[in-house]
Design a protein that fits this description.
The structure is a single chain. The protein is an alpha/beta fold. 30% of the residues lie in helices and 22% in strands. It has a six-stranded parallel sheet, sandwiched between helices. A two-stranded antiparallel sheet has the order 7-8. Helix 1 links the parallel strand 1 and strand 2. The model has no long low-confidence stretch (mean pLDDT 80).
Length: 194
Amino acid sequence: SAFSLDEEPLKKIIIIGGGNIGFNLAKDIEELDLSLSVTVIEKSKSRSKYIADTLTKTLVLNGDGLDQSILDEANIDDADMLLALTNDDETNIITSAIAKKNECKSLILINNSEYNNLKDVLGIDRIIDPRMITVSKILKHIHKGKIESVYSIGNNQGEIIHAQALKNSKLINKSLSDASIPDGVRIGLIKKND
């Protein structure tokens, strides 16, 4: 709401792809005991059986996530978000179009970063780019100081850094105008004394 993006909490999600990411997400949701209805659609019959035997609160459907009849069986009309987490970028992109047709938000996994540039053209709500996440995790360990998190943005054209100023930092007890901050650095938020 601070950014004028008031959104209702999710109540029902459909995950296309029961691989490691889709399965572990559904498992984490169960373990966190979130009041969230989860359906996993998995193409492989043996994998579907494994997921259904392992998870207790998640509905597991065996079928193609691009098949409208399977999506209808998963009650896509009631879903708040469709997550396409397969290993195939094209399947995930098509899934986002299906979500849009069914008036459902989409979050898709993209392995080819070139597709990030087509996000708006393709009508994709949100993208997960594992390469960018990996870059961000590596950057966290490369930077000096107490870095909480680092996110690479704009195809590595910038970084958002969440850092803690240590007691020996040159930033402590100075105003921003006196802190000699390098050109190009912008301070978005300072948290002090909680």
